[in-house]
Amino acid sequence: MTGPTNHISISGVNTGPMVFGGTSHGDISGGTVHSGPAAGGDLLDLLEQLRALVREHDLPKQEIIEDALDELSDAARAPGTATPAVPVSRWEKVKTLLTGLSDFSGIVLKISEQVGRVWPG
Question: How far apart are CA 85 and CA 89, in angstroms?
């Protein structure tokens, strides 16, 4: 994975010191914080990692898993254009097919978190 997983964009008039190293050096006023726009990029990275891991294993229904990952990747590239139910259902299908396989548990959890951020609800 490249770069930090949380991105914060501050816009507007910011007239105060910032927080460095966990220590506040004064008050901050007039800032607007936007977080989460990089979630789609993080999700794409994780989907590529999962796709590579799936290819290393001889899994039942592997073609179905890869097709669902392709559709999910397409939706993650333009998250605002897809009806949330479609990518979420693709992910649920992949999760179901990978359930019980310990090699996949960590990355499945990470992707589930990202899917929830990109398509909440």
Answer: 6
